[in-house]
């Protein structure tokens, strides 16, 4: 109790309700998304007449309000159907977590189970999360839908993760399930940050799934200001934010592709830093500190979750920097990588694939790159670490194979002689 006593007092209190700044919070009003909300609602409206709505594909970068808007429309649809003859329900599946056909079908069946089932309904077998043939799961789901009746809207959030891991069989079955139903209807809403995922789809699946497409544009700085202002009124004690805090958070997030989640994180962490300092107000200096903290935390998470081959490419760059090469070329990275890959007994990638991994590291912000002309010798890619690489080294070496002990007797003399 003594250790936390100072945190339980109201002295220098900053927050009124910090949960309002979390991504999971759903406001009653979504600023600057009414056109998209109205469009989704108009497409789903036929379900209130027990008719099949068109399937929808929704695109937009992270933090553009896609999921929040769909959840809002879904809850309003269920409210409207409760006052109507038609039965409408919405099932929301996160495909980053539930990423196989079996688990998607089983989760849908679990979510549509009703507490008011009749005795005959209760005699139907419960679908386990593993163990049945997928065809049996599909047939049982179809039976449940028929017994339930009405319209079911299935939202597949992060649909690209499902397609990239498990192919398009899930979508093929779900987009054709209406042809096997008589007293029930199904509509699919796919949400994705990645436009290119459509390249993985069979043309027949794509034409069935993308009957309607809606794009969510990034927020600009004034729009982010409105969003933050709306949340700040509920999140912070009155007059604890300096005047420039919200505009600065909005401006910084607008530079990051108009990401409202980034803006909310900046505002929340700024408040938390001020609270820890026991400051009376959140100042612009707290926002700048919050930005540095978020970037560091994001970098650590990004690097720690990289595939093994990407880590080895990145470690090759770290070795070059340790040898005094602050700027290095893709050719140099490839040579060090090949030595590392042989020593670690992993598959040696082609130079083309290594170049692709370097581009991905650049896109993630781990390194900086530029293409330079060498005259008659052609063009090459140069790269360097923008910030102190010590933190990157610490994260990389949490992989036991890339520690000093893990690399063991690798021929470092060759490295020093080759790149001195």
UniProtKB/TrEMBL annotation:
Matches recorded under CDD domains: AAA, Cdc6_C
GO MF annotation list: ATP binding; ATP hydrolysis activity
Residues engaged in binding ATP: 64-68, 219, 231
Pfam families: AAA_22 (PF13401), Cdc6_lid (PF22703), WHD_Cdc6 (PF09079)
Function field: Involved in regulation of DNA replication.
NCBIfam families recorded: orc1/cdc6 family replication initiation protein, PRK00411.1-3
Gene3D superfamilies in alphabetical order: 1.10.8.60, P-loop containing nucleotide triphosphate hydrolases, Winged helix-like DNA-binding domain superfamily/Winged helix DNA-binding domain
Domain Cdc6 C-terminal stretches: 314-396
Lineage of source species: Archaea, Methanobacteriati, Methanobacteriota, Stenosarchaea group, Methanomicrobia
Family: Belongs to the CDC6/cdc18 family.
InterPro entries attached to this UniProt entry: AAA+_ATPase, AAA_22, Cdc6_C, Cdc6_lid, ORC1/CDC6, Orc1/Cdc6_arc, P-loop_NTPase, WH-like_DNA-bd_sf
This protein's name: ORC1-type DNA replication protein
One BP annotation, GO: DNA replication
Domain of life: Archaea
All residue ranges annotated as the AAA+ ATPase domain in the record: 52-220
SUPFAM superfamilies tied to this protein: P-loop containing nucleoside triphosphate hydrolases (SSF52540), Winged helix' DNA-binding domain (SSF46785)
PANTHER family: CELL DIVISION CONTROL PROTEIN 6-RELATED (PTHR10763), ORC1-TYPE DNA REPLICATION PROTEIN (PTHR10763:SF22)
Signal sequence region: none
HAMAP family in alphabetical order: ORC1_type_DNA_replic_protein (MF_01407)
Entry keyword set: ATP-binding, DNA replication, Nucleotide-binding
